[in-house]
Amino acid sequence: MLKIAVCVSGGGTNLQALLDAVDSGVITDTKISVVISNNKNAYALERAAKAGIESLCISPKDFHNREEFNREFLRKLNTYQVDLVVLAGFLVVIPPEMISQYKNRIINIHPSLIPSFCGKGYYGLKVHEGVLNRGVKITGATVHFVDEGTDTGPIILQKEVLVKENDTPEILQRRVMEEAEWNLLPKAVELIAHNRIQVKDGKVVITEG
Ligand code: GRF
Question: What is the Å distance from ligand 1's center to 23 Cα?
Answer without folding.
Answer: 21
